[in-house]
Amino acid sequence: MEENKNSVIKSAMSYGLLLGLFWAFKYVFFILGYTSSSFFLLFHQALAPVTLILAYIFTRRYRMDIGGKISFFHAWQFGILLYLFAGIIVSLEQFVFYRFLAPPDFIANSLQATVKMLKQADLGPKMVETIERMDVPTPISMAMMGILNNTFYGIIFSIPVAALLCRNNATGNINENNHLEN
Predict the structure, then answer these.
(1) pTM, to two decimals
(2) In angstroms, how far is the first alpha carbon of the chain from the final one?
């Protein structure tokens, strides 16, 4: 099966837009979580698993768009791009939040809270000292870190999705040559 790189990118952008819009909706609960912990609970416990389900559904739909068969690497590549493009969409909302909606010292306070938590966890003085010396990230750097984090999650979480979807090709096997003949 020959891979059409333009098709992968175009489809990942289209489905990534949908996933990114879901993440933008989900991010509202993250923002509201600072007013009520029940929103944080909803953000992490209820909406986060939906991302995995949507990634599976979008990758499965992409498999059908390209003819019903997909290799592991092709599905994994699509999943990584899916998370990348969704991360770009939600990063716009993250930038607006950190730049215009959050209090001016929000990022600095979050960094200090992280340092305090790491000290309580006895993580190690060098690690804590390194984090204490860090410059406070800017809103744009927070948005860029969000894109990188989401892409990293795509690398990890697309592995089981790709394995499931190449396993469920028309033959039912990971290796398309291993099928039973009557």
Answers:
(1) 0.85
(2) 24
